[in-house]
Design goal:
Helix 2 runs parallel beside helix 12 and helix 3 packs parallel to helix 8. The strands form three sheets. This protein has a seven-stranded mixed β-sheet, with helices on both faces. It has a two-stranded antiparallel sheet with strand order 7-9. Helices cover 59% and strands 6% of the residues.
């Protein structure tokens, strides 16, 4: 009971104090986020500041509540919902309407999925799934991609009070002061989460970036600061230095570090440590302290708008880029986006956020339910319209959609709607849903076997990255008709080489390649189909890497024939989006053949083993001069570098003829 007495005694000394520099810190963080997004096309580290500040405020609130008595979770969560949900729902509803009008149909389904994930505050997990799903990883940036951080905050806001309540109950069972037990608990969370963050960032950075547990330590660090900040004795000069060091460090973080590709891990200590310095400096009492700048009224007001400003700026930026067809905005357009975002943020703050907080009760709960229902209905209607658009076109394979056959002289009626429908083009990936798949060793990618009715006459292994995988659309029908079997060993962004070609330090890719090579050695297939070249971009950058050739020599030693296929062109833009903006058969949505393909294939520069035959599909993708975006009423590319499954299927006759010529099967 002595612990409880001490707890109550401390209540008066821990009363809530208004922290003007904290609002200034929020203003600085959101300014960095917006400016870096709009003008620099970089990530600033400002989101990590929001995580630390959220942990600081939430833990302080819960600690004070624990000192007063039992913590009422329902009232706490109701107020959190009133703080987060109304503004988020308003922005999501506005985004649904604007996106349905402005976005190309090829981005509809992705956007609908992510809007739903954002409304449920699980957008970070949606993006994490896309990060490890290579097909989804080529999606264009979503209009609600920024909801990943809000989703993490929402999840933590649900779990954090439960953690504190458990610590409080445990402390009271042993007659200890709960606030003496909270720091060790938060320290444990900080250490464990940071260690996990460092490990996962090293193993799979895209997944780690969106993972809730890799960010939990930032909230816990803020909580520790809330509990121990007042015990740090600093004189005004030291506080002044600490405050300015934090400000300068925050501003420079995104310029110095490639935040998007190295965070979270230990690198996220930079912005969180800077924010901690600013909060520790607090009201410095020094005439030149950073808190003097962070506490002026306009800066504090921007801090009040920070949540709404964060919500609005990103969808406005993406929609402007889509509407104008630009890859980035200039100074004037960027200023316009920021200005409109500020205006919408102010309206949202005064007309939505503040009234919702004042009425955080039954009435506001009903309003939230009604708004959520409207959002769900809007998404459902949009989804139905998209499905209807996707199903009205003719089925592929008929004479009206010859695809690659048009390059060989087949007639084309350009008045016929193209396939796949634009609304479904980004999902037109070669599917192996009915194939038999099993994990390859310890890797997430599988070994998949084409279903066969009886013992196959031939077995062909397709191995490598997604560009090898897309050829299955042409190969699988030939194999099925002839009684062969196709076996796939595919890992996105990991071509079949002796090194990791895309990311030189990707040891996991190299380990997968060795496992795939061992699988091939065990199976002894009749042939291996893989890539002969990569990176066919404008500027004649196509190469046959040394690692490809070395891998072919190893297959030669095993007595396995190799069919090496020349890569298709790659673009610096989304081809379907270009067609949606420029119109069908727009030449600027394709590329000149001479710009991506040299007259002499790059493999001719190497000593090639005798087991290798080359398949150059250039004539299936390009005419004598141009490599179009649409051929024979079929869209050739699903994004900026992958063939649509519909188009790949039209290359089947050419592939079959070549197999006959090379192997005589």
């Amino acid at each position: 009971m002595a612990g409880l007495a001490r707890s109550r005694a401390r209540t008066s000394e821990d009363r809530t104090r208004y922290r003007p520099e904290l609002q200034g810190l929020r203003a600085l963080a959101v300014s960095l986020v917006v400016v870096y997004h709009v003008w620099l096309n970089r990530v600033s580290g400002g989101v990590d500041v929001f995580f630390l500040v959220s942990g600081f405020l939430l833990t302080g609130q819960l600690a004070r509540a624990a000192g007063r008595g039992p913590i009422t979770l329902r009232a706490l969560w109701r107020r959190m919902a009133a703080r987060l949900l109304p503004a988020a729902l308003v922005v999501l509803l506005a985004t649904v309407v604007a996106a349905a009008v402005i976005l190309p149909m090829g981005r509809w389904f992705q956007t609908i999925r992510e809007l739903a994930a954002s409304a449920l505050f699980v957008q970070n997990w949606q993006l994490a799934a896309d990060a490890v799903d290579y097909a989804a990883g080529n999606n264009t940036a979503s209009v609600v991609q920024h909801f990943w951080s809000l989703s993490i905050q929402g999840q933590v806001f649900l779990a954090w009070p439960v953690l504190v309540v458990l610590v409080v109950l445990g402390a009271r069972r042993v007659s200890a002061d709960p606030r003496d037990c909270l720091p060790p608990a938060l320290l444990a969370v900080t250490v464990l989460s940071l260690l996990y963050s460092v490990a996962l960032t090293a193993a799979n950075q895209p997944l780690a970036y969106f993972h809730t547990l890799t960010r939990l330590w930032e909230f816990a660090l803020g909580g520790l600061l809330a509990l121990r900040r007042d015990r740090v004795g600093l004189n005004p000069a030291t506080r002044c230095a600490a405050g300015w060091a934090g400000v300068i460090g925050l501003v420079s973080c995104g310029l110095v570090m490639p935040v998007a590709s190295v965070f979270p891990g230990y690198a996220a200590l930079w912005p969180t440590a800077c924010a901690a310095l600013i909060l520790t400096a607090g009201a410095s009492g020094h005439p030149l302290g950073a808190d003097r700048l962070l506490s002026v009224r306009p800066v504090r007001y921007l801090g009040d708008l920070s949540y709404a400003l964060y919500l609005w700026h990103w969808p406005l930026l993406v929609l402007v880029l889509v509407a104008t067809g630009q890859e980035s905005v200039g100074l004037r357009d960027g200023a316009m986006i920021i200005g409109v975002s500020l205006l919408l943020a102010a309206l949202t703050h005064h007309l939505v956020e503040l009234p919702a907080l004042r009425q955080a009760g039954v009435g506001s709960g009903r309003a939230l339910v009604a708004a959520s229902g409207i959002l769900v209905l809007a998404l459902a209607v949009w989804q139905v319209i998209g499905i209807a658009r996707a199903s009205i076109a003719d089925q592929p394979g008929d004479a009206s959609h010859p695809g690659a056959l048009a390059l060989a002289g087949a007639e084309v009626d350009a008045s016929i709607e193209p396939l796949p429908p634009m609304v479904a083009v980004s999902d037109d990936w070669v599917r192996l849903d009915d194939w038999s798949c099993a994990p390859l060793a310890r890797f997430p990618s599988d070994v998949c076997e084409q279903p066969v009715a009886e013992e196959p006459q031939r077995r062909i292994v397709v191995v490598g990255d997604s560009h090898a995988n897309q050829l299955i659309g042409a190969l699988a029908p030939v194999a099925q008709r002839r009684g062969w079997q196709v076996i796939t060993l595919i890992r996105g962004a990991c071509p079949f080489s002796t090194v990791s070609e895309i990311e030189p330090d990707d040891t996991d890719c190299l380990a997968w390649i060795e496992a795939a090579a061992a699988e091939i050695a065990d199976r002894q297939p009749d042939a291996v189909l893989t890539l002969a070249t990569r990176d066919a971009r404008s500027g004649l950058t196509e190469v046959t890497p040394r690692g490809f050739v070395e891998r072919w020599w190893r297959l030669h030693e095993l007595g396995v024939p190799v069919l090496a296929v020349r890569d298709n062109p790659r673009f610096d833009f989304s081809v379907p989006d270009c067609l949606a903006q420029r119109g069908r058969y727009a030449p600027e949505c394709g590329v000149e053949r001479s710009a991506v393909y040299a007259a002499e294939p790059p493999w001719l520069r190497w000593d090639i083993p005798p087991n290798v035959a080359f398949l150059d599909l250039t004539d299936q993708l390009c005419d004598a001069v141009h490599c179009p975006a649409e051929v024979g009423n079929i869209v050739v590319y699903m994004d900026d570098n992958h063939l649509t499954a519909t188009y790949a299927a039209t290359m089947e006759p050419a592939l079959e003829r070549y197999l006959d010529d090379v192997f005589g099967w």
